[in-house]
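Batch job 17 of 40 flagged for manual review because the log was empty.
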Amino acid sequence: MRQIIALGGGGFSMEPDNPLIDLYILKQTKKTSPKICFVPTASGDSDNYISRFYNFFNKQNCTPSHLSLFNPSTRDLEGFILEKDIIYVGGGNTKNLLALWREWSLDSILGKAWNQGIVLAGISAGSICWFDEGVTDSFGDGLEPIKCLGFLKGSNCPHYDGELERRPAYHELIESKNIQAGIATDDGVALHYIDQKISRIVSSRPNSKAYRVSFDIKVIEKELQTEFLGSY
């Protein structure tokens, strides 16, 4: 079973006092103490970001670690990745993330991990990287489309309600055919894909949603059923 959990926002880095989505991610391995590895490439391996990861996950029933490409601790990246249960990719600059992953062949290693049943998860840049395309601010001047890994079909736009320019930019890019139709996620929402199909959409916030956005004469935005994890 191949799983990807793509967060539009939220999780330990945005709402450290609201553990609902991160606990949901841990549960998907069905293990009592899963090995979870943080990949903070998009942030330039920010020390602060890595510290926040450990601050949260050291308190959970799991075994946390991280992978640095700026200061690697091993040459055997494949061996390091493939013995984990969850790979959790942080946010930041998607263009830099993809370039470095390809240089280190981490893109193909992560594809192998996914096919072997290791859960892939991530927020923002760590969400859109799994899709054919995503909406990114990687270029520093507005929002633009970017080609990604293509593990999941279509496009992805995170922070749909968290940044004012996200919704209109995504609509414009789809209408102008500069990006293909796809899924937009509010902050606090996670898309749980099993074998490239959405299995569940869950949220750590009661009013946050996901949307399927397409174009047919005009932009069509369809709200998708989203489960608030706090109700369980």
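Reviewer: the log was empty due to a logging misconfiguration, but the result itself is present. The chain has a mean pLDDT of 95. Unflagging and moving on to job 18.
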